[in-house]
Amino acid sequence: MEENQNQQKISLPETIIMVLICGGADFFDIVANLLSTTIALMPVFLALELILAIIVLLVIVTWLIIRRIGGLWGTLLIVANLLKFIPVINILPMRTFCLFIVIFVMNHPRIVKTALKATEVATSLIPIPQAKIVQTAARVAQMTMPNNSKK
What we know:
Low-confidence stretches: none
Distance between the termini: 16 Å
Number of helices: 7
Shape: globular
Mean pLDDT: 82
Strand content: under 5%
Structural class: mainly alpha
Order of helices and strands: HHHHHHH
Number of strands: 0
Helix content: over 70%
């Protein structure tokens, strides 16, 4: 168990801290959107949402740089944070869901590589043009997987 924990790229305390940051920001976005229906409170909540979105974006980008998470998975997390600046979409908890995906991918690279390989095989059996797009996306995702040198 401890040997498996040492192989994880993102530790449990780090995961908890990042989930609290992203989850708290997403929860505030939901509450602020519901409370900003009153005209008097709307400018206050919109300003607070914008300030919080900028702070969380800076924290996540710093975390991605420190942890050396890049490629497709880092881009996924940054795009989810940038989508939070769009007023109607920001009520969805995209930051937290994308954070869970990135943490899972970084901690379980063999499972994800197997799933990507299965996706590539399955799409090669489908003779429609959209399958080629999925197949190309699977190849790109596979190339951006972290290298696991301790096998």
